[in-house]
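Hey, can you fold this one?
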Amino acid sequence: MNKPSALFTPFTSDKLTLSNRIVMAPMTRGFSPEGVPGPEVAEYYRRRAAGGVGLIITEGTGINHPSSVSGASIPLFHGDESLQGWSNVVQAVHEAGGKIMPQLWHVGTARRTGDLPHAEAEPVSPSGISMAGEENREPLTEEEIQGLVQAFAQAAADAKRIGFDGIELHGAHGYLIDQFFWEHTNRRTDKYGGDLVKRTRFAVEVIEACRKAVGPDFPIVLRFSQWKMGNYDARLVDTPEQLEQFLAPLAAAGVDIFHCSTRRFWLPEFEGSELNLAGWTQKLSGKPAISVGSVGLEAEFVDRSTENQGTGDAHLDQLNTMLENKEFELIALGRVLLSDPEWPAKVREGRQSEIIPFTTEVLKTLN
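Sure. Predicted structure:
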């Protein structure tokens, strides 16, 4: 890559200023015993800030609901111990010159009965339908939905209170908010179901409640995707017109930045245009968009059968061109930052030959 300049230009919006365009993508790590992020988690994020990441988005963190996460070592975002752990993370990242947002998460029916930390808690979903299309639960009641909305809002308020620089709501990949978005898992006939716009109602209420909890100047990011875990062909929308209908109520509710999750950032989203999902989202919503998907990698998505997934600098020329063309404002990096916390500094300084390539071995430790 001969022209890294666009990647390293500052980003400024009405609520957020970053030193460059690089975002650390949220990646589930599961190294927080009993849901509490400890000193090693703080150091893990601090290294990425010190390595030159403009904005860190944490791994998904469980809101205050018994079935929000699946696993005893997934970090929580409620309770004194967990929040104190996150406060320590924020301090470490800020001292290294970085900015950080928690990703607020509820997994919905991606959780199985018996999963920790609350083995007795049943998975919840809009219509009692699993991602495989099986009717295996009672649908959420409207009262239960309001409880979930308030749990997201409380997490947002706590994020601001302990010093985070914004929040990201996880509305992608087939988790709870996305289960409301998707017609295959949302078959409700009340105000939370129906057509594409009506299926945004739950997310709109979550966003509005979070906005009320944090005030007008605290950034709210929403991550969404077409694909779902285990279903890469799933689609929320098939045309730019449908995407515009989908985005409008979310933007009006208070989303400041859309994080558009794709598997490969360089692929066009709709026929007849080279724009990817982030490109279309930014164009149609008027909000800044974060793109993501296999930056610096040559192998397919998370291909665990392929140990070495490239040299760490694949597709950078194309990325730089897309940033220069203002197709999207920010780019999220995942696996390349797991293997090499100094990836941004090495690319900025032309030291690509020193990048540590991603291998699946790095998933086993909190490097």
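Confidence is low (pLDDT under 50) at residues 301-309. Let me know if you want another pass with a different chain boundary.
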